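Lab notebook page, bench 4
Experiment: in silico fold of construct C2
Operator: M.H.
Input chain length: 545 residues
Purpose: comparison with the prior construct
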Amino acid sequence: MELIDQHTKKIMEGCKDRAREAGLSFDDETLEYIVTNRDLLELSPKIMIPTLYDYWVHDVEVLKEKGRYELYPGNPYETVINTRPAISFYNDNNPDWLNVMIFYHVLAHIDFFQNNIFFRHTWDYDFTGQALSDKRLIARLRAEKGRWVDYVIEFSRGIDNLVGYYSELSRLNRPQSESKRLDFYFDVFLQAERHLSITEYIKEIERYNDCLRQYGEKLGEDSFFSDADIKYPEFEAFFKKSLEKKSKYKGTDLLQFLMDHSDFLNKEENEWMKSIMQVVRKTSVFFQPQIRTKIMNEGWASYWHETLFLQDDRIKSHEVEFARVNAGVTSMPRVGLNPYALGMRMFYYIEDMVNKGKHSFDFQKVLDQNRRKDFDAKTGKGREFIFKIRENFCDFMFISTFVDQDFVTLNNLFVAGQRLNQAKMVWEYYVKSRKAEEYRKMLMDSLYHPPYIDVPADKNTSKTLYLRHNFEEKPLVAEFIANTMMGIEYLWGWPVQLETHEVFSMSPPAGPQEVQKEPDIEWQQILYTMENRKLSKRALGKMKK
């Protein structure tokens, strides 16, 4: 792995200038590396983070990918990771015209990473540097503790999809911790603990307002509490004690709950396990937005590599090659989902819709098909609007808001069904529906949606940990329950129970010539118990309709 040469770097800097002129926004510093196929095979299991901690599953994935590559060789065009500075990887045999296209794609990804609010928690630090520190920590612990380190990693990764990603975003976008600190200082500490007179109390309020006027909201509050800590050094202890009184069952971050409240983990000889769990949790939280914005992110990058490449004078005489490569990346499959193609078409559709004034109440009132087709208010605000979408939306919001019947009809989209052709004894695909609501539901079902599991306070009255899987008509994957609960039992130190729902009965599927419809499902409530590494299962009753 090595940095790109100066000739190629000059091409990248030219792409940066043109991208900024078009409205994209990103940091000046970026790193571009040339990698071999072997490098890519070894980096892929580590999510392209070279400094990520070592784990035996990574080695298994490398071996699997090597076998797959021997059978189906193919080279990805690029890979970019959300670090500071942003790092991207390229093949060593790309011609200059292809690099122009790829660099625009990468810069659009970086723009998305650094401006979309769902990545807010990744903006303030360099993850590669943090990952290197975590890797050294785990290597040191592995030398001291041996295989137990990998057990803790395994058990933690089994529940790392249950991290409190949205609570992390809430903390950053709505800094409640500071407001709680401020409320406690003025409402409780100064009045109930220090018994300040009205005159002194008003002076503290005036001092706070002066700090805000002089330094702004964030720095002003920090300055105010810096002086307060000098004046009242005991304040922090009082504030932390007040936070500890709050319910320990708040939130759904199971990893954090175990670290905070497990008697086993909080024993002095087991404190090192919490360090590993924290590494796994931080890594999971960091990559949550990538999973939740896949269609938008790839669509945004594809929109811009096509838009900017066709305007670039450096690609003259290479239009045919570009068309061939671009079609391979952004063609819409008849069956299945291509996030590049779907996301790009949605951005084009939204831009055109807003330019014509179709994203308005006046347009929604028009019911005549011909009038809807010819409607054009010529607003010219489409490009501005898609930048706002890029900033504020995730895939769920993107799809639920903009996949409508006009979009489905315009792109000739449909939901495919599968049936058995008894004459030929083969499975065949057919057009099941062209309705927007059906197509939107199919897209929603493909999105990342981890189970919602909480720790109910009314059920946790003993040392046994009681977990509740909230019913969303999606059962847990049965084959993972035993190993996952065994890991939780080990980290908790006592038995663990899990309340969930499973299918009790299902109506038989329709015959090959019958109209396909959703089967009727009857659910039953199940309680799993893991005690001494043995799993038991008990039915609690059928779910009422």
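Observations: Residues 331-446 form one domain. The first helix runs from residue 6 to 22.
Next step: discuss at group meeting.
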